[in-house]
Design a protein that fits this description.
The protein is α+β, with helices and mostly antiparallel strands and 241 residues long. The protein has 1 helix and 8 strands; from the N terminus they run αββββββββ. Strands 3-8-5 form a 3-stranded antiparallel β-sheet, with no helix packed on it. Strands 4-7-6 form a 3-stranded antiparallel β-sheet, with no helix packed on it.
Length: 241
């Protein structure tokens, strides 16, 4: 019986094509992805890497989207960092969330380890101490024009809203020298109005001399003595609002 050469050639063609396809798939798998990153599962006990955004959306009402927990207290449950980690803390004991950022060289901005942003309360802390800051400057409050940098609030208004342990420094207070024969001193200060509360006293012991009045106006206030000075004296002042 004669061989069916057509069938034989078809089988050989199929085998050749299959082998070629397998080789192409293997080469494709081995080659690096150039156009887009391939999604991969997140693995535990592995330094996972990514070149694209990784997000998690929780659609169930009242459910937690992401939770990180440690059974020991010698490390933060969740750590986030950006940039060079040269000065990152080596001890994050008893910490729920630790965020770190390097210093920003720009004088107008600063690196932020943890940033909370909301139209209501950006960051909320509760406990015996709600918020604590530690550093060269522990806590800074900055407001936009017309806003309030830091507000101390006690809801029942019968207990302490602001407690200062140590020195307090105010930029709108100071002392000025008033010369012999002078009985008044005008001090220019931005933000002062006729409604400002300004207090002043003599900072030198001068018999029968005292501050008679302080009159505030737009951009300045004037301190008046009851009589002219017979020797140079210090005048101390404090502007409340």
């Amino acid at each position: 019986m004669a061989l069916d050469t057509t069938t034989l050639r078809s089988r050989r063609a199929l085998l050749t094509a299959a082998a070629g396809g397998a080789a192409a798939m293997a080469a494709s798998a081995a080659a690096p992805f150039v156009v887009s990153a391939a999604p991969t599962p997140m693995l535990t006990e592995t330094a996972n890497t990514s070149v694209a955004l990784t997000s998690l959306t929780q659609s169930a009402a009242g459910a937690v989207a992401f939770k990180a927990r440690t059974t020991n207290t010698d490390a933060a449950a969740l750590l986030g960092s950006t940039g060079d980690e040269t000065n990152i803390a080596t001890d994050t004991s008893w910490t729920g969330v630790y965020g770190w950022s390097p210093a920003n060289p720009s004088p107008d901005f600063f690196g932020t380890g943890l940033w909370g942003d909301s139209d209501d309360v950006g960051t909320y802390g509760s406990g015996t101490i709600g918020v604590m800051g530690d550093g060269a400057i522990g806590v800074v409050g900055r407001a936009d024009t017309g806003g309030i940098g830091v507000r101390a609030l006690n809801f029942d208004q019968t207990h302490v809203a602001l407690e200062v342990i140590g020195k307090a420094k105010f930029s709108r207070s100071g002392r000025r020298s008033l010369g012999t024969g002078k009985s008044s001193l005008k001090i220019t200060m931005p933000g002062v109005t006729s409604q400002s509360l300004v207090f002043a006293v003599l900072g030198s012991n001068r018999a029968n001399r005292y501050v008679r009045a302080v009159v505030a106006t737009t951009g300045s206030f004037t301190i008046y003595l009851n009589a002219s000075l017979q020797s140079p004296s210090w005048v101390l002042y404090f502007v409340v609002n």
